[in-house]
Amino acid sequence: MSVNLAKGQRVSLQKSSGETLTVVRMGLGWKAAPKRGLFGTRTRQIDLDASALLYAERTPSDVVFFQHLVSNDGSVRHTGDNLVGGAGAGGDDESIVVDLSQVPLHVTQIIFTVSSYTGQTFAEVQNAHCRLVDETTGQELARYELAGGGPHTGQIMAKVFRDGAGWGMQAIGAPAKARTFQDMLPAIEPFL
After folding, report:
1. Residue 78: closest CA among 88, 68, 86
2. DSSP characters for 4-37?
3. 20-38 pLDDT, tens per residue?
4. 3-class SS of residue 79
5. How far apart are CA 126 and CA 148, in angstroms?
6. Which end of the chain has fewer CB atoms surrounding its CB within 10 Å, N or C?
7. How far apart are CA 89 and CA 4, in angstroms?
8. Which residues pair with 50 in a beta bridge?
C-alpha cells in the first residue's frame, strides 16, 4: 500500500512485517506541459536530471548523478540519464537505486534533487512525481506529487534518512534556482 506524502511529511521505511527494507528505488517522472501558440499546442522537450547527494550529518560525502552513475562505495546507482521525460504520472523517467544495507554507516541521509539542465522552469513541467519503491517486491511505498509549477529550475524532492536502526523518508518539495545539483547546495542546507 502506497502513502501519498504531503510536503514535509515523514514516513518510516520499515516493512509492515517489522523488517527493514534493503533495496529501494527513487523514481522521478515528468512530462513537458503543452504550450499554446499561434499554430496550436506544442510541447518542448525538457531535460530534468535526478541526483542523490549522500551526507554524513551535514557534510557532503558523495553524489550520484548523470556523470557519476554509481556512488564510490557502490550502494547508490543511477540507472541513466533521460533527456526528454514523458512518462509523467505513470512511470519513471529516471531512477536511483539505493541498497540501504550497503550504505556506509557514516552516511546519515540521502537528498534527492531534480534540476532543469536545459533551463526550463517547473511551470513548463507537468505530472512531476517522486516515488519510493521496494525494489525487491516492486511495491510502491510512498509518492510525492510535485504540483504548482513555478519559476524555479530546481527542486529538492525528498530525503531518505537513518531513523534509529532503520530508515525513513521525508517529502521536501522545496524550489531552488538550479541547473545542476551543485547550484542547489545552499538550498539543501536547511533540510539537513
Report:
1. 68
2. EPPTT-EEE-B-TTSPBP-EEEEEEEEEEPPEEE
3. 778 989 888 877 666 665 6
4. coil
5. 9
6. N
7. 13
8. 114
The 3-state DSSP composition of the chain as helix, strand, coil percent (nearest 5) reads 5, 50, 45
Which residue carries 534509529 as its cell?
A: 164
Assess contact for 170 and 7: CB atoms under 8 A: no
**Coil, strand or helix: which one is 74?**
coil
Considering only CA atoms, give the Rg of the chain: 16
- Which amino acid type is present at position 141? L
The cell numbers describing 84, all together, are 526528454
Using CA atoms, how far apart are residues 149 and 170, in angstroms rounded to an integer?
Answer: 20
Taking only the tens place, the pLDDT of each residue in 88-139 is 446 788 899 999 999 999 999 999 998 888 888 877 777 777 788 889 888 8
